[in-house]
Amino acid sequence: MLVKSILLFLLGMVLIAMIGRALFPGSVRRLVHRRSAALKPGTCPRCGTHIIGKGPCACGAPKGTQ
């Protein structure tokens, strides 16, 4: 009985996922792309290396992004 309940639950979740993909195609990809674009690290405008932390770049340029 427990196995049957678990299988019915999983089948219900699959059905909900299929309906969601049919109604909103591509929405997950847009969300992931938006998050990855927001998390890009800052780079030095002069030498192009990644800036870690709050201080300036090792080349002497002030902190900034391209």
Percent in strands: under 5%
Strand-pairing-aware structural class: mainly alpha
Total number of helical segments? 2
Q: What's the overall average pLDDT, rounded?
A: 80
Give the number of DSSP strands.
Answer: 0
Sum up the overall morphology in one term.
elongated
Radius of gyration: 23 Å
How far apart the termini lie comes to: 60 Å
Give the biggest beta sheet: none
Q: Give the helices and strands as they follow along the chain.
A: HH
- Uncertain residue segments: none
How would you explain this protein's 3D organization?
This protein has 66 residues and is mainly alpha-helical. Helix content is 52%, strand content 0%. It has 2 helices and no strands. The mean pLDDT is 80.
Structure characteristics:
66 residues; mainly alpha; 2 helices
Brief summary of the model shown:
By secondary structure, the chain is an all-alpha fold. The protein has helices spanning 2-23, 27-38.
SSE order and pairing:
Elements: H1 2-23, H2 27-38
